[in-house]
Amino acid sequence: MSDFVSLEGLTLAYGNTVAVEALNLSIARGELVSLLGPSGCGKTTTMRAIAGLMTPRAGRISIDGRDVTRLPPSRREVGLVFQSYALFPHLSVYENIAFGLRLRGEAGLDARVRDGLATVGLDAFADRAPRDLSGGQQQRVALARSLVMQPKVLLLDEPLSNLDARLRLDMRMELQRVQKETGITMVFVTHDQSEALALSDRIVLMNGGAIEQVGTPEQIYSAPVTGFAADFVGFETILPDDAGGGLAWRPGAVVLGTGPHEGTVRGTAFAGERREYIIESALGRIKADTPASAQALTLGEKVAFDLPQDRAVRLERLG
Ligand SMILES: Nc1ncnc2c1ncn2[C@@H]1O[C@H](COP(=O)(O)OP(=O)(O)OP(=O)(O)O)[C@@H](O)[C@H]1O
C-alpha cells in the first residue's frame, strides 16, 4: 500500500503523561480510515499530531511524501472538522465557506464556494446565517468550509456526535458520498463502533495509546485477534485456551437449554428482538441471548448451555 500519510514511531505526550507510544500507521491516498477506541485511548491526540497541533516526543509524520513533523498546521495542507462546528455566527453560509479562501487570496473564489455548497447540498442556503440552520446543516457548512481549501487530508474528530440519532445516519452517508466523490483522504475519529464499521475503508482500533488491530470493517467485526478487540465488537464471552490465547463468542452463538455445561442465570434483560442473559458457570461468565419469542429464563434458574467451537473466533491473546 502506498503511504500517502505515514506515521512512524510516533510518541505523543502531555508533560509526563505518554498518550500514544511508538505508533506506526500508513494511510493510502483516498482512503477513509477511522481511529476507533474507548475514551482516553489516544485517538484525538493522534489526530492533533497529524494536524500539527502538538509536537511529537519522538517519531515522524509525512504527508504526500513530505516530512511535516516540524511544520506548523498552516503549512501541512490538512483540514479539520470538529464536533462543535465553530462557524462564524455573524457571517452567512457563503461567507463562512469563503473565509479561508479570502484569507489566502485564492483565485476562482465564487466558483469554489458554489462548488462547496453543491457538494454538501446547501446551494439554496448560501445567504442564511448559521443560527438559522439545523445542526446537520451547520455540520455540512463546516465540512464544505474545509473541503474548499482542498486539503490533502481531512481530519474529522467525532463530527457527528452532536447530532441526534437520525441525523447522524444521514450525515454518515453524506460524508461517505462526499469522500467518494472528492476522493479526499480522510481520518475519522470516533468511539462509536457502528459508525466506524459503516463508514470506513479501514479501521484502526486503539487501546491504551497503541494500535490493537488494523483491518477492514469486516475483519474487525468478524475476526478480532485480541480479547480487547473481541469484546469491543461484541464477542462478550471470552475464555482462555491452553496456548495463551482464547476463544470468543457473540451472545447469539451461545446455545441455551442444551449442551455439556451448566450455569445459573444471574442477569436478564429484554432488548426488543432478543432477550439477553448473563450466566455464571464453572467456565466463567457467559453472555447469551435468545429470540424474544423463545421462553424466557428467570433469575437464579439453572440452565444447560453449549459453546460451539465452529461459532467461536480464535484470539491470539486475551487482554
Ligand atoms: N491536555 C492534556 N493534558 C494531559 N493529558 C491529556 C491531555 N489531553 C489528553 N490527555 C491524556 O492523553 C490520553 C489520550 O487522550 P485522547 O484525548 O487522545 O483520547 P481519546 O481516545 O481521543 O479520548 P476521547 O474519546 O475521550 O476524546 C488520555 O490518557 C488523556 O487523559
TrEMBL record:
Transmembrane spans: none
InterPro entries for the chain: AAA+_ATPase (IPR003593), ABC_SmlMolc_Importer (IPR050093), ABC_transporter-like_ATP-bd (IPR003439), ABC_transporter-like_CS (IPR017871), P-loop_NTPase (IPR027417)
SUPFAM superfamilies for the chain: P-loop containing nucleoside triphosphate hydrolases
A Pfam family annotated for this UniProt entry: ABC_tran
Keyword annotations of the record: ATP-binding, Nucleotide-binding, Transport
Domain of life where this protein originates: Bacteria
Biological-process GO terms, alphabetical: quaternary ammonium group transport
Protein name according to UniProt: Putative spermidine/putrescine transport system ATP-binding protein
One annotated GO molecular function: ATP binding
Domain ABC transporter: 5-233
